[in-house]
Amino acid sequence: MADNLSETLKKLKITAVERTEDSLEGCLDCLLQALAQNNMETSEKIQGSGILQLFANLLTPQSSCTAKVANIIAEVAKNEFMRIPCVDAGLISPLVQLLNSKDQEVLLQTGRALGNVCYDSQSSKEQFASTNIAEELVKLFKKQIEHDKREMIFEVLAPLAENDAIKLQLVEAGLVECLLEIVQQKVDSDKEDDIAELKTASDLMVLLLLGDESMQKLFEGGKGNVFQKVLCWIPSNNHQLQLAGALAIANFARNDGNCIHMVDNGIVEKLMDLLDRHVEDGNVTVQHAALSALRNLAIPVVNKAKMLSAGVTEAVLKFLKSEMPPVQFKLLGTLRMLIDAQAEAAEQLGKNVKLVERLVEWCEAKDHAGVMGESNRLLSALIRHSKSKDVIKTIVQSGGIKHLVTMATSEHVIMQNEALVALALIAALELGTAEKDLESAKLVQILHRLLADERSAPEIKYNSMVLICALMGSESLHKEVQDLAFLDVVSKLRNHENKSVAQQASLTEQRLTVES
After folding, report:
1. Average pLDDT estimate for 475-485
2. pTM surpassing 0.90?
3. Cα 451-453-456 angle, rounded to 5 deg
4. Distance separating the N- and C-terminal Cα atoms of the chain
């Protein structure tokens, strides 16, 4: 087979130049056979032979061999190492031109070839970005009426559109207008093909918005035709459009300026209405998308109060009963964003026993690390932003203390820190109420470990010492502090390179010495 292959490649070089169709076809059949038997080895030989460069000339609409050449390209491009050589050999432009073909087999193989060359390969996509493929594909797309051909172009567009530079080129070539038109034509149809095309078009639209530049270009300061059209998808009766609309808003909401503009122009009410329509039917993807959008919109400080007074917390709390981790995760994130530095809202939520009990339950969701982490962070945030005794009491009664203590040992410094600050507030405001829980969660031992561990971040050491001082007000915890040699650990930190840590170590040492 190997000798045969070398022979075939030699022969192909000659016939490709002379263009003798019959012998050419025989050579191509041999190659396809060799690829079917051992794709990788054959691909390596094809690359070594320099034959790829000749394929560009064979990809002509008139030639009877075109489908076979495209098929060979599709086969070799299944190998990651062949994708860039295909681009370098100048095969993209002739392949794109072939998408105009009337021949079904040529179309099929061309679509496969383009799809495989740009599949999952960052570098080949980057090389695509320097061709005019975006423009060519969009031009071609505008001409197509048949569903199958459009579907084929979609299949090439989707992987390409993952590259940010190409996203922008597709937007500039007018793809978005085509997609909006498809949506408008197909929205009321119940034909299977139309439903599929509507989904593909709206998904692709959302994908284009994932690029920062392409997204900003389409937002046009909130005046953009595209942005306005997408807004109309949210109240539609079509679930796929509601989903795409909410995801699009979540993507537009990736910078403060856009978020502020959208909130001022009534997007929150639209999203709340959408959520309302899906409380009972449990359409998880739509719930998740609408909550993602609300969470992003709640990031800028000026939006928080506006969203709170619009009733977003009440709308979101309706999903507390959801058993779907993706919905739980976004619900928690949205509430955490909303109460950031909003004392009144944090207090109101922190006294909501149903919410706090659900949070404590989710803090044990071992299978869903995201939900578990967000629940812990929200518990801590309720205390940190409300600084309220009632909130602390509610959390103690619901069994939340042990989770905050565990959170202090998290692998993420930001979570450790949030836990320690919340625990220091508990110790300062309601030590008597929380004392037993802090003891049984072994807080003092954990703080000793954090202070003795050289890898602990400076802010962790600082907050651990603040917390130790606050715990001295409890007789039983004070005794635990005395039993563990805290003085040794703390006095070592007096020479810490971080000024705040060194200062806090001196203060803590005095406190420990006075009260020993």
Report:
1. 90
2. no
3. 80
4. 87
